[in-house]
Amino acid sequence: MPWPKPSENPNERRPPLLAGKSRQSARPRAASYESRGTDRGYRVLPGTTAEQHSDPNYEVQPFYWVDADLLEARLAGRPWHRSWLMGWKDVAAVTNERTTTCAAFPRVAVGHTIRVMFADGRGVSPIALLTNLSSLVLDFVARLKFGGLHLTVETMKQLPVLPASAYTPADLKFIIPRALELIYTSHSMAPFAEDLDYSGPPFAWDEDRRALLRSELDAFYARAYGLTRDELRYILDPADVRGPDYPSETFRVLKSSEMARYREYRTARLVLEAWDRQNNTRVA
Description:
By secondary structure, the chain is mainly alpha-helical. It has one domain (16-281). Helix content is 40%, strand content 10%. Strand 2 and strand 3 form a beta hairpin. Helix 6 (169-183) packs antiparallel against helix 8, helix 8 (207-224) packs across helix 12 and helix 9 packs antiparallel against helix 12 (266-281). Mean pLDDT is 85; it is low at 4-11.
């Protein structure tokens, strides 16, 4: 385990219990309990820095630990035969950059704010399911269905997830290397890499490279859902299609944060550029 053992007994293995705050689809090590501050009376977790993300040995620290036997007992009998897990954050909002936040993570315990998905076998590719649920197009639909502060199992079951039959071998050849590079950035995810027959070191954390990979997957799924380029433009930013006075917004927080940071809506540009490249080369 990459986490330090909290027990004085060196033979006692206690996996951490990770909270939803520590997981993001683009940032699998998003925040840690190793140090905490207060903001307006509420406990807050400091976000992982770029330097920490760049360290493949760094892992976020939990507030609680559990007994390893209890963890394995809860996983016993589940339709899952891998040494890593995947799931989504229960707490969500349409005012976040993404509403549907899915991630792969080590085989550790999680709190109720992370819903674990068991989708192994029956022709289902868990990697394709994970990237599908992390796509902008699906997130757009989730925002139309979402209400309240919890992304429930019932809501997830209503989302238009592509069936396994929608993917060709060429599709998976396009998806899997990108998912691998986005997810395998720390040694704790080595079992995930091994499942994909990759035995190399974790991939370097490069923000620009990661943005490019995510945009390529977003463009891929827009095409997989049969969208036109203008429909994709509308999903990214309705005002780009309907004019600046159009009252609807989709990813307002994402757009605002990128305008402040990059002086452009970078995601929209990268996704549309990826769409054009894939359309020209007929990828997928």
